[in-house]
Write a structure and sequence with these properties.
This protein folds into 2 domains: about 5-135, dinb family like domain (Four Helix Bundle (Hemerythrin (Met), subunit A), Up-down Bundle), CATH 1.20.120; about 145-255, Nonspecific Lipid-transfer Protein, Chain A (2-Layer Sandwich). It is built from 8 helices and 6 strands, in the order ααααααβββββαβα. The chain has helices at about 5-20, 35-55, 60-70, 75-95, 115-135, 145-160, 225-235, 245-255, and strands spanning about 170-175, 180, 185-200, 205-215, 220-225, 240-245. It is globular and about 50 Å long.
Length: about 260
Amino acid sequence: MDHLTIIDAETERFIEAVAAASGEGPVPTCPDWTVDDLLWHLTEVHAFWARILSSGARTDADSEAVEADKPERPVERGQTVELLRAETAALVAELRSRPDADPAWSWFPPDQTVGFTRRMQVHEATMHRIDAELAAGLVSRPIEHEVASDGVSHAVEVMLGWWGTNPGFELRPVMGVVALVASDGGRWLLQPGRWIGTGQSGKTYDEPGVVLVADGEPAASVTATADTLDRWLWGRGPEPEASGDQESLDALRAAVAPGMQ
């Protein structure tokens, strides 16, 4: 996968879609945001990760300093678009100059590398491009199969799996394994359950969750193209065709329902 070309291309598609929408219009997949909020969000995200890499940030304190030094939000939409292009170019340049294995801060404790940022920003740019298309009422462009397939894995391993990075948290299985089957190539086995643990504040948690598993006889399946599966897991599309044990499917649905922004 050419991550940098994808980040560039998806950002330009995002800008095209934003231009076709009212700045004050709602974003159906990010209900608290207007289109201009979405535009600013992707701008500040690219700025943040470009500075994480350029500053050599390695700790939470480093990341907080980067966040505190973020650019101010422009008043005019055109200025924000110009800033997004500049920050995207900076992000791509930083990623191009570093191998995946180089250390770099991320919010996901198991992966503190440049590779995490490279992978994450492909999916962030792709999903926000879809957000912008939906807000503008445009027909959404397909996600390339390689991107969509990795997006399914990333959604489960990282976006839904981060609960498991909290010390002492465990996933207690609920019902059976569910197979995600990509009709155009790809298969993932998911074990739904509940994340159980106590946070640093002393608060106890009992939250729906899911993890990838290596084997197991599926009790149910969800079948669609990788594009459709990817959109569903990230909260950008409807649930695909599902069959099998309904309680297992309901446990998976509970994990997916909160969505991602």
